Structures are given as C-alpha cells and as structure tokens.
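Memo to structure team: turn this sequence into structure tokens by end of day. - J.P.
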Amino acid sequence: MWENTADISVEFLYVLLFFSVTILDARPIFGFATQAIDKDFKQFFIIYVGLAIANSLFTLIRAFTFAYGGIEAARKLHKSLFNSLVKCSISFFDITPSGRILNRFSSDTWSVDDSLPFMMNILLANVFSLLGTLILSCYGLPKFLIILVPLAIFYYFIQV
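Reply from structure team:
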C-alpha cells in the first residue's frame, strides 16, 4: 500500500519539476521582460520551486513517519493489553462480559490508530507553521520583538 503512495509522490515531484522547467523555458516565447529581469525571475523562480519541492518532501516524510509511529504505537498497546488480559485471574472473566473486554480492546486501539496520529500531525504542523511565521516576522520586522517578548511573558503567566 505504501509503495504505491511513494510512487505517486515521486511521480508528482517529477511532474512539478517538468512544469517548472517548462515555464522557465517558455518565458522568452511569450516575450516577457528584458534579459536582466528574466535573469532575476529565473533565480527567484528556481528558489521558489526548490522550496515547494522541499516542502512536499518534508510533508511526505512527516506523513510516513506518523503512519509508521501510529502502527508501532497500536502494536505496543495491543501487546500490552493482551499481556495484561492473559495475566488476569479466571474470576475476572467470570465477572466481566467478553463484549466489554472486546470493546475495550477495539476502542483503545482505534483511538491510537486513528485519532492520536492525526491530532499529533496537525499539532506539529501548526507549531512549526507558527514558529516559521514568528521567525520570518522577527527577521523582516525586528521591532516586532519589542511587542512579542512582553506578550510571550504575559501569556506564560496567564497559562500558569
């Protein structure tokens, strides 16, 4: 299953690279700009395409990492639940209905399989997006730090 996704992603990157090169080669045909401006355009466009490809690769790596992490977490949880269940006394099985035991296995495994990796993926994407925005804002507007530092301290004391 994952091999097909990787093949599709690699093919997508090849198509993206092909269209990028095609756009760079097609600019003189349409008569855009002068040669000096065209040189600047090519430089910035290559940087932009490089950033887009790097973003796609890191997103792909993040998705595969979370999928693998979710599978490993579910495997460890299931193994731990099963070992605990095997160590139970017979009186536990006399008192507890088998449906309740099965329901506990499926609900815990479902939460680790489905919702936990998805939420962690969203959390990390938002945290790094926020950090990138703050870093670029502080780089572009250094006076932004004058406001950001007191706000961060104020936010910290509100949370505590």
